[in-house]
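Task 17 of the worksheet. Students: predict the tertiary structure of the chain below and write it out as C-alpha coordinates. Keep your answer in the requested format; marks are given for formatting as well as content.
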Amino acid sequence: MRKIKILVFVLCFVLFFLSACGSNDKHTTIKLGEVTRSLFYAPQYVAIEKGFFEEEGLNVELQTTWGGDKTMTALLSDGIDVALVGSETSIYVYAQDSKDYAVNFAQLTQTDGTFLVAKEKQDNFSWEDLKDSNFLGQRKGGMPQMVGEYVLKQHGIDPHSDLTLNQNIEFANIPSAFVSGDYEYVQLFEPTASVFEKEGSGYVVASFGEESGQVPYTVFMAKQSYLKENEENIEKFTRAIYKAQQWVQDTDSAEVAKTIKDYFEDVELDILTSSIDRYKNQGSFAADPILDEDEWNNLKKIMKEAGELPDGNISYEELVNTEIAEKVISN
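Model answer:
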Protein backbone atom coordinates (compact mmCIF):
# COMPACT_ATOMS: atom_id res chain seq x y z
CA MET A 1 0.00 0.00 0.00
CA ARG A 2 2.84 2.33 0.90
CA LYS A 3 4.50 1.65 -2.48
CA ILE A 4 1.26 2.55 -4.27
CA LYS A 5 1.05 5.84 -2.35
CA ILE A 6 4.65 6.65 -3.26
CA LEU A 7 3.99 5.84 -6.93
CA VAL A 8 0.89 8.04 -6.96
CA PHE A 9 2.88 10.86 -5.34
CA VAL A 10 5.64 10.58 -7.95
CA LEU A 11 3.14 10.58 -10.82
CA CYS A 12 1.38 13.63 -9.39
CA PHE A 13 4.71 15.42 -9.02
CA VAL A 14 5.66 14.65 -12.64
CA LEU A 15 2.29 15.84 -13.93
CA PHE A 16 2.57 19.01 -11.86
CA PHE A 17 6.09 19.63 -13.18
CA LEU A 18 5.02 19.16 -16.78
CA SER A 19 2.02 21.42 -16.24
CA ALA A 20 4.22 24.08 -14.69
CA CYS A 21 6.63 23.91 -17.64
CA GLY A 22 3.74 24.36 -20.02
CA SER A 23 2.40 27.35 -18.10
CA ASN A 24 5.82 29.02 -18.32
CA ASP A 25 5.93 28.66 -22.10
CA LYS A 26 5.66 32.28 -23.19
CA HIS A 27 5.58 31.55 -26.92
CA THR A 28 2.72 33.41 -28.59
CA THR A 29 1.20 32.00 -31.76
CA ILE A 30 0.83 34.27 -34.79
CA LYS A 31 -1.06 32.94 -37.79
CA LEU A 32 0.76 34.19 -40.89
CA GLY A 33 -0.68 33.94 -44.40
CA GLU A 34 1.56 34.36 -47.46
CA VAL A 35 -0.11 35.25 -50.74
CA THR A 36 1.87 32.54 -52.56
CA ARG A 37 4.91 30.34 -52.00
CA SER A 38 7.73 32.32 -53.56
CA LEU A 39 11.51 32.42 -53.52
CA PHE A 40 10.94 36.17 -53.53
CA TYR A 41 10.05 35.83 -49.83
CA ALA A 42 13.37 34.23 -48.85
CA PRO A 43 13.94 36.41 -45.72
CA GLN A 44 10.62 35.22 -44.28
CA TYR A 45 11.64 31.56 -44.55
CA VAL A 46 15.04 32.44 -43.12
CA ALA A 47 13.35 33.99 -40.07
CA ILE A 48 11.58 30.67 -39.48
CA GLU A 49 14.50 28.35 -40.22
CA LYS A 50 17.12 30.33 -38.28
CA GLY A 51 14.85 30.48 -35.24
CA PHE A 52 14.54 34.27 -35.21
CA PHE A 53 10.80 34.14 -34.43
CA GLU A 54 11.42 31.58 -31.70
CA GLU A 55 14.09 33.81 -30.16
CA GLU A 56 11.41 36.48 -29.82
CA GLY A 57 9.04 34.08 -28.09
CA LEU A 58 6.81 33.63 -31.13
CA ASN A 59 5.37 30.53 -32.72
CA VAL A 60 4.60 31.52 -36.31
CA GLU A 61 2.14 29.25 -38.11
CA LEU A 62 2.70 29.79 -41.83
CA GLN A 63 0.03 29.02 -44.39
CA THR A 64 -0.11 29.80 -48.10
CA THR A 65 -3.37 31.56 -48.96
CA TRP A 66 -2.93 31.58 -52.76
CA GLY A 67 -4.02 34.96 -54.10
CA GLY A 68 -4.46 38.53 -52.94
CA ASP A 69 -8.26 38.33 -52.62
CA LYS A 70 -8.15 35.14 -50.56
CA THR A 71 -5.35 36.49 -48.39
CA MET A 72 -7.24 39.66 -47.52
CA THR A 73 -10.46 37.72 -46.90
CA ALA A 74 -8.56 35.51 -44.45
CA LEU A 75 -7.06 38.57 -42.74
CA LEU A 76 -10.31 40.52 -42.43
CA SER A 77 -12.21 37.46 -41.15
CA ASP A 78 -9.49 36.65 -38.56
CA GLY A 79 -8.48 33.46 -40.32
CA ILE A 80 -4.93 34.82 -40.10
CA ASP A 81 -3.37 37.50 -37.92
CA VAL A 82 -0.74 38.82 -40.33
CA ALA A 83 -0.71 38.80 -44.13
CA LEU A 84 2.28 38.88 -46.46
CA VAL A 85 0.84 40.33 -49.64
CA GLY A 86 1.19 43.21 -52.07
CA SER A 87 0.49 46.56 -50.40
CA GLU A 88 -1.96 47.46 -53.18
CA THR A 89 -4.43 45.13 -51.45
CA SER A 90 -4.49 47.40 -48.40
CA ILE A 91 -5.46 50.26 -50.70
CA TYR A 92 -8.31 48.25 -52.23
CA VAL A 93 -9.66 47.38 -48.77
CA TYR A 94 -9.32 50.97 -47.51
CA ALA A 95 -11.20 52.28 -50.56
CA GLN A 96 -14.17 50.06 -49.62
CA ASP A 97 -14.60 52.08 -46.41
CA SER A 98 -13.58 49.17 -44.22
CA LYS A 99 -13.89 50.13 -40.55
CA ASP A 100 -11.03 47.85 -39.50
CA TYR A 101 -8.73 48.19 -42.51
CA ALA A 102 -5.30 46.65 -42.98
CA VAL A 103 -2.16 48.59 -42.06
CA ASN A 104 1.28 47.93 -43.58
CA PHE A 105 3.89 47.62 -40.82
CA ALA A 106 6.93 45.82 -42.28
CA GLN A 107 8.23 45.67 -45.83
CA LEU A 108 9.83 42.47 -47.16
CA THR A 109 10.51 43.15 -50.85
CA GLN A 110 11.15 46.53 -52.45
CA THR A 111 11.11 45.89 -56.21
CA ASP A 112 8.98 43.99 -58.64
CA GLY A 113 10.08 40.36 -58.72
CA THR A 114 9.26 39.45 -62.31
CA PHE A 115 11.46 39.10 -65.37
CA LEU A 116 10.69 39.38 -69.06
CA VAL A 117 11.30 35.98 -70.61
CA ALA A 118 11.49 35.44 -74.37
CA LYS A 119 10.80 32.08 -75.99
CA GLU A 120 13.72 32.55 -78.38
CA LYS A 121 17.22 33.57 -77.35
CA GLN A 122 17.94 37.26 -78.06
CA ASP A 123 21.44 38.66 -77.79
CA ASN A 124 20.46 42.26 -78.56
CA PHE A 125 17.07 42.68 -76.95
CA SER A 126 15.22 45.98 -77.32
CA TRP A 127 11.87 46.83 -75.75
CA GLU A 128 10.74 47.73 -79.26
CA ASP A 129 10.87 43.99 -80.00
CA LEU A 130 7.68 43.57 -78.00
CA LYS A 131 5.59 45.50 -80.52
CA ASP A 132 3.22 43.22 -82.46
CA SER A 133 4.24 40.29 -80.25
CA ASN A 134 2.05 37.80 -78.39
CA PHE A 135 2.62 38.58 -74.69
CA LEU A 136 1.47 36.47 -71.73
CA GLY A 137 1.03 38.83 -68.79
CA GLN A 138 -0.08 38.54 -65.18
CA ARG A 139 -3.51 38.79 -63.53
CA LYS A 140 -5.24 42.16 -63.95
CA GLY A 141 -5.18 44.34 -60.81
CA GLY A 142 -2.17 42.63 -59.22
CA MET A 143 1.21 44.24 -58.74
CA PRO A 144 3.03 42.17 -61.42
CA GLN A 145 0.50 43.19 -64.06
CA MET A 146 0.47 46.85 -63.04
CA VAL A 147 4.26 47.08 -62.95
CA GLY A 148 4.50 45.22 -66.25
CA GLU A 149 2.19 47.67 -67.98
CA TYR A 150 3.90 50.63 -66.32
CA VAL A 151 7.32 49.56 -67.63
CA LEU A 152 6.01 48.97 -71.13
CA LYS A 153 4.51 52.46 -71.18
CA GLN A 154 7.79 53.93 -69.97
CA HIS A 155 9.34 52.45 -73.11
CA GLY A 156 6.67 53.93 -75.36
CA ILE A 157 4.65 50.72 -75.73
CA ASP A 158 0.89 50.65 -75.25
CA PRO A 159 0.23 47.15 -73.85
CA HIS A 160 -3.35 47.17 -75.12
CA SER A 161 -2.75 48.30 -78.68
CA ASP A 162 0.90 47.69 -79.60
CA LEU A 163 0.87 43.97 -78.79
CA THR A 164 -1.50 41.08 -78.11
CA LEU A 165 -1.78 40.87 -74.32
CA ASN A 166 -3.30 37.88 -72.53
CA GLN A 167 -4.15 38.33 -68.82
CA ASN A 168 -6.67 35.52 -68.45
CA ILE A 169 -4.38 32.70 -67.30
CA GLU A 170 -4.32 31.74 -63.61
CA PHE A 171 -1.03 32.57 -61.89
CA ALA A 172 -0.10 28.93 -61.28
CA ASN A 173 -0.73 28.00 -64.93
CA ILE A 174 1.24 30.82 -66.60
CA PRO A 175 4.53 28.89 -67.02
CA SER A 176 2.91 25.85 -68.67
CA ALA A 177 0.69 28.07 -70.83
CA PHE A 178 3.77 29.88 -72.12
CA VAL A 179 5.57 26.66 -73.01
CA SER A 180 2.59 25.07 -74.75
CA GLY A 181 1.16 28.21 -76.35
CA ASP A 182 2.27 30.50 -79.17
CA TYR A 183 3.37 33.29 -76.82
CA GLU A 184 6.64 35.06 -77.64
CA TYR A 185 7.12 36.75 -74.25
CA VAL A 186 6.00 36.13 -70.68
CA GLN A 187 6.36 37.83 -67.29
CA LEU A 188 7.76 35.33 -64.74
CA PHE A 189 9.07 35.17 -61.18
CA GLU A 190 12.11 33.25 -60.03
CA PRO A 191 12.94 30.40 -59.83
CA THR A 192 10.73 29.65 -62.85
CA ALA A 193 12.67 32.07 -65.06
CA SER A 194 15.97 30.35 -64.25
CA VAL A 195 14.42 26.88 -64.68
CA PHE A 196 13.24 27.90 -68.15
CA GLU A 197 16.73 29.11 -69.04
CA LYS A 198 18.27 25.85 -67.88
CA GLU A 199 15.74 23.81 -69.87
CA GLY A 200 15.95 26.04 -72.94
CA SER A 201 12.24 26.86 -72.68
CA GLY A 202 12.83 30.59 -72.39
CA TYR A 203 15.47 33.26 -71.83
CA VAL A 204 15.52 36.23 -69.46
CA VAL A 205 15.97 39.41 -71.49
CA ALA A 206 15.01 42.13 -68.97
CA SER A 207 14.03 42.76 -65.36
CA PHE A 208 10.81 44.58 -64.48
CA GLY A 209 12.24 45.19 -61.01
CA GLU A 210 15.20 47.11 -62.37
CA GLU A 211 12.99 49.10 -64.74
CA SER A 212 10.26 50.15 -62.29
CA GLY A 213 12.28 51.35 -59.30
CA GLN A 214 11.54 50.76 -55.62
CA VAL A 215 7.99 49.97 -54.56
CA PRO A 216 6.47 48.33 -51.44
CA TYR A 217 5.94 45.17 -53.45
CA THR A 218 5.35 42.65 -50.66
CA VAL A 219 4.54 43.81 -47.15
CA PHE A 220 3.44 42.37 -43.82
CA MET A 221 0.13 43.88 -42.75
CA ALA A 222 -2.45 43.41 -40.03
CA LYS A 223 -5.79 44.90 -39.14
CA GLN A 224 -5.83 48.12 -37.14
CA SER A 225 -7.43 46.39 -34.17
CA TYR A 226 -4.85 43.60 -34.13
CA LEU A 227 -1.96 46.07 -34.21
CA LYS A 228 -3.39 48.01 -31.27
CA GLU A 229 -4.09 44.91 -29.20
CA ASN A 230 -0.84 43.11 -30.02
CA GLU A 231 1.73 45.89 -30.38
CA GLU A 232 4.41 44.07 -28.37
CA ASN A 233 4.06 40.86 -30.41
CA ILE A 234 4.10 42.76 -33.70
CA GLU A 235 7.29 44.45 -32.57
CA LYS A 236 8.80 41.02 -31.84
CA PHE A 237 7.62 39.78 -35.24
CA THR A 238 9.18 42.77 -36.98
CA ARG A 239 12.44 42.32 -35.06
CA ALA A 240 12.67 38.71 -36.27
CA ILE A 241 12.08 39.81 -39.86
CA TYR A 242 14.74 42.51 -39.54
CA LYS A 243 17.24 39.93 -38.25
CA ALA A 244 16.45 37.77 -41.27
CA GLN A 245 16.78 40.69 -43.67
CA GLN A 246 20.20 41.54 -42.29
CA TRP A 247 21.25 37.88 -42.39
CA VAL A 248 20.26 37.57 -46.05
CA GLN A 249 22.14 40.77 -46.90
CA ASP A 250 25.32 39.50 -45.20
CA THR A 251 25.19 35.86 -46.33
CA ASP A 252 26.16 34.42 -49.70
CA SER A 253 23.34 33.17 -51.92
CA ALA A 254 24.39 29.52 -51.73
CA GLU A 255 24.02 29.50 -47.94
CA VAL A 256 20.65 31.27 -48.14
CA ALA A 257 19.51 28.67 -50.68
CA LYS A 258 20.53 25.79 -48.39
CA THR A 259 18.70 27.38 -45.47
CA ILE A 260 15.35 27.63 -47.28
CA LYS A 261 15.65 24.54 -49.52
CA ASP A 262 12.86 22.67 -47.71
CA TYR A 263 10.34 25.26 -48.89
CA PHE A 264 11.19 24.49 -52.52
CA GLU A 265 11.72 20.74 -52.63
CA ASP A 266 11.18 20.48 -56.39
CA VAL A 267 13.78 23.13 -57.25
CA GLU A 268 17.44 22.19 -57.62
CA LEU A 269 19.88 23.91 -55.28
CA ASP A 270 21.87 25.56 -58.08
CA ILE A 271 18.68 27.14 -59.46
CA LEU A 272 17.72 28.42 -56.00
CA THR A 273 21.19 29.88 -55.58
CA SER A 274 21.25 31.67 -58.94
CA SER A 275 17.71 32.97 -58.41
CA ILE A 276 18.52 34.40 -54.98
CA ASP A 277 21.67 35.92 -56.44
CA ARG A 278 19.63 37.59 -59.16
CA TYR A 279 17.25 39.09 -56.62
CA LYS A 280 20.08 40.21 -54.35
CA ASN A 281 21.96 41.85 -57.20
CA GLN A 282 18.98 44.00 -58.18
CA GLY A 283 18.17 44.89 -54.56
CA SER A 284 14.80 43.15 -54.41
CA PHE A 285 15.09 42.04 -50.78
CA ALA A 286 14.53 45.01 -48.49
CA ALA A 287 17.45 45.54 -46.09
CA ASP A 288 15.10 46.77 -43.36
CA PRO A 289 11.32 46.69 -42.75
CA ILE A 290 10.63 50.41 -43.22
CA LEU A 291 8.19 51.32 -46.00
CA ASP A 292 9.07 54.91 -46.87
CA GLU A 293 6.80 57.51 -48.45
CA ASP A 294 8.70 57.71 -51.75
CA GLU A 295 8.08 54.01 -52.33
CA TRP A 296 4.41 54.48 -51.44
CA ASN A 297 4.05 57.33 -53.91
CA ASN A 298 5.72 55.23 -56.62
CA LEU A 299 3.17 52.49 -55.93
CA LYS A 300 0.30 54.97 -56.31
CA LYS A 301 1.80 56.25 -59.56
CA ILE A 302 2.01 52.72 -60.96
CA MET A 303 -1.55 51.94 -59.90
CA LYS A 304 -2.84 55.18 -61.39
CA GLU A 305 -1.07 54.49 -64.69
CA ALA A 306 -2.79 51.09 -64.78
CA GLY A 307 -6.19 52.64 -64.01
CA GLU A 308 -6.41 50.71 -60.72
CA LEU A 309 -5.91 53.49 -58.13
CA PRO A 310 -9.22 54.13 -56.31
CA ASP A 311 -10.55 57.67 -56.08
CA GLY A 312 -10.00 59.64 -52.90
CA ASN A 313 -7.10 60.21 -50.56
CA ILE A 314 -4.98 57.08 -50.21
CA SER A 315 -3.10 58.31 -47.17
CA TYR A 316 0.39 57.08 -46.36
CA GLU A 317 -0.15 58.12 -42.73
CA GLU A 318 -3.35 56.07 -42.51
CA LEU A 319 -2.18 52.88 -44.20
CA VAL A 320 1.49 52.67 -43.21
CA ASN A 321 2.92 52.30 -39.71
CA THR A 322 6.68 52.89 -39.61
CA GLU A 323 6.95 53.45 -35.85
CA ILE A 324 7.33 49.75 -35.09
CA ALA A 325 10.04 49.19 -37.70
CA GLU A 326 11.87 52.36 -36.67
CA LYS A 327 11.83 51.27 -33.03
CA VAL A 328 13.18 47.83 -33.95
CA ILE A 329 16.02 49.29 -36.03
CA SER A 330 16.97 51.89 -33.42
CA ASN A 331 17.25 49.18 -30.77
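Marker's comment: The chain is about 45% helix and 15% strand. The domain at 114-212 is CATH 3.40.190.10 (D-Maltodextrin-Binding Protein; domain 2).
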